[in-house]
Amino acid sequence: MGSNWRHSFIKPIFIIVAFCIFITGAISNAIGSEQDMILIPAGPFKMGSSDKDILWAAKRFHSESLDWYRDETPLHEVTLPGFKIDKFLVTVRDYEIYRQVTGKAAPREHDNARFNQPRQPIVALPWKEARDYCLWAKKRLPTEREWEKAARGTDARYYPWGNEADALNTNIRGKGDIYRYSNPVGAMPENASPYGVMDLAGNVWEWTEDWYQPHPGNQYDNDLYGEQFKVMKGGSWNSNLDLARGSVRGKAFPDDIKNYIGFRCVATN
Questions:
Q1: Is residue 16 part of a domain?
Q2: What is the CB neighbour count within 10 angstroms for residue 240?
């Protein structure tokens, strides 16, 4: 009788443990399937823009003033340790898993069919909420330097795919791509960086860790420098191809909640 009692007690416990392992594995697989990470090797790269680069941009995009580009200067060398970056932006599906675990409130666009499809990037989160997600995932937001190296490689290219301003390689405003709003992550294979990181030009702007400060050696006064704006990178479905260049320094208040700002995470070995 004692043996039968032990068997009848152990069996339900085994089933519960097995179920917990299954659920944990399912969550891990769901996150891992969307959020593969790519190693960006240690070493130097060229960040920012030279005077020649901003003259090219002004001419190519018929800009009225070079002042719009001054914050990208100068072109300078930066050396970074190796790090890993999410291959894809954090998606609606990723964020829903996070919400189920943490009980976080639904983001603003949760019920908006234009932005709530599972493989679209999660948007309309303020900077701190994006940062909280990365910390929960045992990662962090990228610095501006890390983001730019992942997007441009080591040759200071203008776009992830190279120097050609090809509007059909990415999702921007009104240039012939098939997406009116944000696209599912990885849906445009041409929009890959030298390392294979996807969607770093267009689709949605991406939060970074950094405040909007001048690059080392920048010689131009800018009243907006300081600790009031966070740098965002990459342009979006709502901007033109000029703003999708990897050196462009978008800026937003940390509390801004916009349907064109998303994020991805990095991890340091």
A1: no
A2: 15
